[in-house]
Design goal:
9 helices, about 425 residues, 16 strands, hydrolase, about 45% helix, four-stranded antiparallel sheet, Pept_M50_Zn, alpha+beta
């Protein structure tokens, strides 16, 4: 029970962090483009916690399975003033409209009650109507201004603050920023691991020794520089590994340098069968170093390596070399995260970086409801010279989201069968 709880907590923390940075990428680029961001949410379902800062409500929701940034204009604005509708207008000192009260008008005795004749809250920013039942007036609507519905304020979004009003380049970068943030997060994590733990180097130096290995028993120590093995000069760690693997159970004469002195140590590799092949092992890890430049270089190498591996895996899935029942959903990822967490913080950090890359790549797939699907519609817009009809695009994304949820159910059931049944 305790292990299950630890796995769940580890999953929520790791996956929540990945979603946070993904959505933060969208948020920052949207704000930079001048888009009104109504909500920044981690999770789906009912709100657990929320607060408002500036224009945006920041929320944590019950189900930690994703997140979203709700931008004005992504969908048609839900509140629309219609002719004949009676509203209350709260005015500032200069007579401009600050708030439009749609109901519970009795709570606002200072509001000017107006029967709407016409309103343009996107381009012209005005409201016209009749006060006192007969006098026609025109009211300018200021920025920012708000609807008041059920005593809750909803900011009015002029057209220039809406997602659809921005250039194709601005919209593309806003959507692309989420996956890019995941790649950047992975790179930063790998760099931090390198700075704190060190990174492996291909030098002929003995790294950390295992407690029960042949190297410790023979007298080798961490930091020993291997000059030669059986008279053959060693220039890299790779050469040391290949030589040891090729001589299982055979005594090897190590010529080493320790504290400026040359020593000779005899080590007999333990014979071990791995995937049908017998190899030699002496219980030594690769040497590690710490430096800022080296950590950055290693971070780039790791990010590229795992990106390539994940893309290759997706290619195998598409070509049928990778079976659907081998995929993992939230349950499988939670179980794996719990197991990795038991190995230590650095393993958990590396696992988080790999998951972040995976999240970035999956979101770039040209599938409806994913960032890649939206980018595909932007590409079509660039070719056509005009956007795809918003209702048709919305329907495609809705169907795609439904299919993704179905896939999620399938892989979750597979995970339950795999780990619990």
């Amino acid at each position: 029970m305790v292990e299950t709880l630890e796995s769940i907590i580890s999953f929520i923390v790791v996956f929540g962090a990945l979603v946070f940075f993904h959505e933060l990428g969208h948020l920052l680029l949207a704000k930079r483009a001048g888009i009104l961001c109504r909500e920044f949410a981690i999770g789906f379902g009912p709100k657990v916690f929320s607060f408002k800062k500036n224009e945006t409500v920041y929320t944590i929701r019950l189900l930690p399975l994703g997140g979203f940034v709700r931008m004005a204009g992504e969908d048609p604005e839900t509140i629309e003033l219609k002719r004949g509708q009676v509203v209350g207008l709260l005015l500032d000192g200069s007579g401009q409209v600050e708030k439009i009260v749609l109901n519970h008008k009795d709570d606002y005795p200072n509001a000017r009650v107006v029967e709407i004749e016409d309103a343009d809250l996107e381009h012209g920013m005005y409201v016209t109507g009749y006060t006192d039942g007969e006098r026609f007036e025109r009211f300018a609507v200021k920025e920012p201004s708000f609807f008041v519905v059920d005593r809750q304020e909803i900011q009015i979004a002029p057209y220039h603050r809406q997602f659809v009003a921005k250039t194709l380049g601005q919209r593309t970068m806003t959507i692309l920023a989420g996956p890019l943030a995941n790649f950047l997060l992975a790179l930063v994590i790998f760099i931090i691991i390198g700075l704190l733990q060190g990174y492996p180097v291909d030098k002929p130096i003995i790294g950390e020794l295992t407690p029960e290995g042949a190297a410790r028993a023979a007298g080798l120590k961490q930091g020993d520089e291997v000059i030669a093995i059986n008279g053959e000069r060693m220039e890299t760690w790779t050469e040391i590994v290949n030589t040891i693997r090729a001589h299982p159970g055979e005594p090897l004469q190590f010529q080493i340098e320790r504290n400026g002195k040359e020593l000779s140590v005899t080590v007999t590799p333990e014979a071990k069968t791995v995937q049908g092949e017998t190899i030699g092992l002496i219980g030594v890890y690769q040497p590690m170093e710490k430096s800022v430049f080296g950590s950055i270089k290693q971070g780039l190498v790791e990010t590229y390596y795992w990106t390539r591996e994940i893309v290759t895996g997706l290619g195998q899935l598409i070509t049928g070399q990778f079976q659907l029942d081998m995929l993992s959903g939230p349950v499988g990822i939670a179980v794996s995260t719990g197991k990795v967490a038991e190995s230590g913080i650095y393993y958990l950090m590396k696992w988080g970086a790999i998951l972040s890359i995976n999240l970035g790549i999956v979101n770039l797939l040209p599938l409806p409801a994913l960032d890649g699907g939206r980018l595909l519609f932007f590409a079509i817009e660039a070719v056509r010279g005009k956007p795809v009809d918003r209702q048709k695009e919305g329907m495609v994304h809705f169907i795609g989201f439904a299919l993704l949820m179905l896939l999620m159910l399938v892989v979750t059931w597979n995970d339950i069968q795999k780990f619990f049944l």
